[in-house]
Write a structure and sequence with these properties.
mainly alpha, 174 residues, 6 helices
């Protein structure tokens, strides 16, 4: 009887908006990576700074995709509940995208500090952009951890992801 319940989960497909967000994040990251390589270094724009710009852009845009996916979930939820399989796949996609965003944001912080040390004589100056990147990194790590654990329901996780859009907006646009 228990195996029949688990069989229901294994055959479940990924929720379509979650699949689209995953494909968009992968495509966007690949596009930005190719763009950084094609643009190449010029003047003070070194390969390290290009990697920093690509990492910041991809990490923050994936954060925005997470927020858009969460908004979609909150809008659709009153009209239709997700099946257990779709909810599980959405939780997994949120954890993976938040982890990818955290990884890219962390790479952006590291490449930015190395570039700043070489070109500006300092690693960290507590500039609002630097500090907000660290806050976005912590938020992404917290979101990935919340989505990965099974003790918290999906709805609060999605609300946390929507709040992350505000954090990312303030961090990127000031």
């Amino acid at each position: 009887r228990l195996s029949a319940e688990f069989a229901k989960l294994n055959g479940a497909s990924i929720w379509r908006p979650a699949r689209l967000a995953s494909l968009a994040a992968l495509s966007l990251t690949a596009f930005l990576f190719v763009l950084a390589i094609v643009a190449g270094p010029s003047g003070r724009k070194t390969p390290l700074l290009s990697a920093h710009g690509m990492s910041v852009s991809a990490g923050y845009l994936i954060s925005f995709m997470l927020g858009a996916l969460a908004i979609w979930y909150v809008v659709v939820r009153p009209f239709r509940n997700l099946s257990m399989g779709h909810a599980a796949s959405l939780r997994k996609v949120v954890a993976l995208l938040a982890g990818a965003s955290a990884l890219l944001t962390g790479a952006a912080i590291i490449t930015g500090t190395i570039w700043a040390a070489d070109n500006m004589g300092r690693y960290w100056a507590w500039h609002p952009k630097e500090t907000s990147a660290f806050v976005i990194l912590v938020w992404n790590l917290a979101l990935a951890l919340l989505a990965y654990t099974k003790r918290i329901r999906l709805h609060p996780i999605m609300l946390f992801a929507i709040f992350g859009n505000a954090i990312t907006s303030v961090g990127w646009f000031g």
